[in-house]
Backbone:
């Protein structure tokens, strides 16, 4: 069964607008972590933001915020005031189980975000 | 954030030869390293998880004899693609984490082309 679902294969957004990238997940663990990564065309994976399952507040990092809806099992990424440099692939990822040295991180299928000038 | 260096960034090899990819953590001790494979326009698929000093744990469907992983030190893991074939052509990317730290840091990736 797919663990991480990103239903938007591609999105176009006007520069300076806010954008929400959707992510839903499936796990039976009570303890888990959720990540968002950005992958530009060069290929490297850039960590954006992290949310732990027990974190009561939504994570924020600069222009990035994570809208964590635990009951709905969703972890949407919100990018405020989008910039041309935000154009990239965005991956939602999840670490299952209690945080341990071997906890693996699995990825969703990604959303390609394109910012229009 | 911490730095993970992956080398080479791209490689072209002949079918039947072996290719080694290195993943180094430059400023932290990586107790765990992960190897992923990414086909064009697709997501990252976890191939294996390696802990320093122990055998790698491979994901279902990944041939451990074909994709040899060595994690001999806290700063270096290697992935060797043995007897490479054109279907092994892909983007391989490693990530490394230290102990119980939340975040895993990624290398730059290696684009392998087998001709």
Residues:
């Amino acid at each position: 069964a797919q663990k991480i679902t990103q239903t938007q294969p591609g999105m176009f957004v006007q520069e300076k607008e806010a954008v929400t990238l959707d992510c839903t997940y499936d796990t039976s663990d009570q303890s888990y972590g959720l990540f968002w990564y950005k992958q530009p065309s060069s290929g490297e994976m850039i960590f954006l933001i992290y949310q732990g399952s027990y974190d009561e507040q939504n994570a924020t990092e600069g222009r990035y915020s994570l809208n964590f809806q635990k009951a709905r099992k969703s972890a949407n990424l919100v990018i405020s005031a989008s910039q041309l440099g935000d154009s990239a692939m965005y991956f939602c990822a999840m670490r299952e189980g209690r945080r341990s040295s071997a906890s693996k991180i699995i990825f969703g299928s990604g959303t390609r975000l394109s910012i229009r000038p | 954030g911490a730095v993970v260096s992956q080398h080479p960034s791209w490689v072209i090899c002949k079918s039947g030869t072996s290719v080694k990819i290195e993943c180094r953590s430059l400023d932290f001790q990586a107790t765990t390293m992960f190897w992923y494979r990414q086909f064009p326009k697709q997501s990252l698929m976890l191939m294996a998880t390696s802990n320093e000093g122990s055998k790698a744990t491979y994901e279902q469907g990944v041939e451990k004899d074909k994709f040899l992983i060595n994690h001999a030190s806290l700063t270096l893991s290697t992935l060797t693609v043995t007897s490479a074939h054109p279907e092994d052509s892909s983007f391989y990317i490693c990530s490394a984490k230290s102990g119980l730290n939340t975040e895993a840091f990624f290398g730059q990736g290696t684009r392998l082309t087998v001709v």
In short: The mean pLDDT of chain B is 92. The interface with chain A takes residues 1, 31-32, 34, 36, 42-46, 49, 51, 57, 91, 93, 95, 97, 99-100, 102-109, 111 of chain B (CB under 8 Å).
